[in-house]
User: What shape does this take?
Amino acid sequence: MYKEYNIDQLVLPLDVEVFIPKNHLCRIVHQAVEMMDDSILLSLHPGGGRPPYHPKMMLKVLLFAYCKGIYSSRKIADELKQNIYFMFFLQNTHIKSNPKTKRGMSLKSHIIMNF
Assistant: This one.
């Protein structure tokens, strides 16, 4: 009568890339940032402390969010958990949603806007 449905079955993490169309905006943002010179972004972190998230990943997230009209750090953090197109940039990296991360994202966006 109905198709099989069992929410308690084992589900392995999927590669979200297979669900994203070839010409989607997130792929364009990814390609554009990958073509950038790494030295520009790597020079932003003076070193010391806990290792930061990769600056290219953060830049991709911010650029994509801005393209979609999302400017709030909280909203971006929500999208990273819920939106497959944002998850594409993370590539299985878990970003903790806490005030430090949100301040870090705000700081990164400030630095990027002042290039």
The chain has one domain: 20-113. Confidence is low (pLDDT under 50) at residues 110-115.
